Amino acid sequence: MSESSRRDALRLLAAGVGGVVYSSQIFGCGSHRMSGVKPATGGQSVAPSSPAPFSFVQLSDTHWGFAKEKFNPDPKGTLRRAIAATLSVAPDFVVFTGDLTHRSEDESVRDRRMTEFKEALGSLKTGSLKTVHFLCGEHDADADQGRLFRKHFGDLYWSFDHKGAHFLGLDNASSKDAEIGAAQLEWLHNDLDGISRDTPLVVFSHRPLFELRADWGWATKDGDKVQELLARFSRVNAFYGHIHQAHRHQQGNISFQSARSLIFPLPPPDHPGPRKPIPWNSEQPYANLGGNTIEVSNETSTQSLDLVASNSKGW
Questions:
Q1: Residue 52: Cβ-neighbour burial (10 angstroms; 0-12, 13-18, 19+)
Q2: Could you give the CA distance from residue 247 to residue 212 in angstroms, rounded to a whole number?
Q3: Which pLDDT score, from 0 to 100, does residue 7 have?
Q4: Alpha carbons 145 and 141: distance in angstroms, whole number
Q5: I need a surface site. Which of 16, 174, 229, 315 has the fewest CB within 10 A?
Q6: What is the phi-psi region of residue 181: left when phi exceeds 0, alpha when psi lies from -120 to 50, beta otherwise?
Q7: Could you tell me which residue, 249 or 47, shows the higher pLDDT?
Q8: For residue 142, is pLDDT > 70?
Q9: Torsion angle of the four alpha carbons 157, 113, 127, 9, in this order, in degrees rounded to the nearest 10
Q10: Cβ(219)–Cβ(208) under 8 Å?
Q11: Which runs of E-coded beta strand occur in the chain?
């Protein structure tokens, strides 16, 4: 699909408050650790200075099984719209950053919801897109420390290389303490060992890895230890969900950005009242719902992947 065709598709499938919402540098000058290429002696790697551009989509907080019409009368339809929009922009891959399903204390209900969610992704997996990565949210995993999630979606944390960047998926949701934990921190240390400091890192998690609003659970207990392990890298972009809104934050060398939910928005972190879902607006259906489309090149940008037509110049 040509760039102009991709933009035209987004104009049809994108939404209300859309447009370019964030820009950061994933690629820049320096060497990169390419997929399948071992770092040279001393942790340095040799790669082209201008890797081929690519894109990926971040979707989050689908809460499959949620059923409160006041907040979303079309809970399954929003996922279908997101799949259609994702296929239209033809990304290299998709990452779901947690809360795929809505919480239930009944294990059989959780199991059924995960099965239904996978079935709902059928058109996404059978289209031109073949690679979909999953992280758990607390709704998916903290009742059983991720056992059912692993059964349906695989490992709780993972890494891979793609076109010059190193990607990490971290689990800060299967623990009721909202932490990464010692075992995963050791895995992360070993995973990053030997990777050049100039390798662009892209990190995914469900909760923010910094303290955004701890009293609302918008933090990771040992997120500072993750930041310490990432501190030596020159370019780190971290994408998360959980807060059901678009938000960005810079902390040291790490550029953080959240994706909006596909089920209902939540109030901003400076909201003085309680953390309650924002009711559905029938005059602007699907407003403030969507994900992120990240176009990676020397001028990397993150755009909102929205679900209704936008008048924003960004589209």
A1: exposed
A2: 10
A3: 43
A4: 5
A5: 229
A6: left
A7: 249
A8: yes
A9: -90
A10: yes
A11: 20-23, 54-59, 93-97, 132-135, 158-162, 165-169, 201-204, 236-240, 248-251, 254-258, 290-296, 301-306
Burial class (CB in 10 A: 0-12, 13-18, 19+), 187: middle
Name every residue whose Cβ is closer than 8 Å to that of residue 274 and which is 6 or more positions away in sequence. none
Residue length, the chain? 315
**Which residue reads 């903290």 in tokens?**
142
Report percent pLDDT > 70 for the chain: 76
Residues 191-205 as b/e (b if ≥16 CB within 10 A, e otherwise) read bbeebbbbbbbbbbb
Q: Do residues 94 and 124 lie in contact, with contact meaning Cβ atoms separated by under 8 Å? A: yes
Half-sphere exposure (Cβ direction) of 232: Cα atoms closer than 13 Å:
9
Domains and CATH numbers, the chain: 3-47+54-67+87-272+288-306 (3.60.21.10)
Structure tokens at 246: 């678009």
The three-class DSSP label of residue 302 is strand
Tokens, residue 41: 């002696």
Which pTM does this prediction carry? 0.83
β-strand pairing of 54-59 with 290-296: antiparallel
In angstroms and rounded to an integer, the radius of gyration of the C-alpha atoms of the chain is 19
Alpha carbon of residue 251 to chain centroid: 18
Please report how the helices 3-13 and 77-89 are oriented relative to each other, as an axis angle in degrees rounded to 10.
170
Sheet holding 254-258, edge to edge: 158-162, 165-169, 201-204, 236-240, 254-258, 248-251
Q: What is the token pair recorded at 163?
A: 């076109």
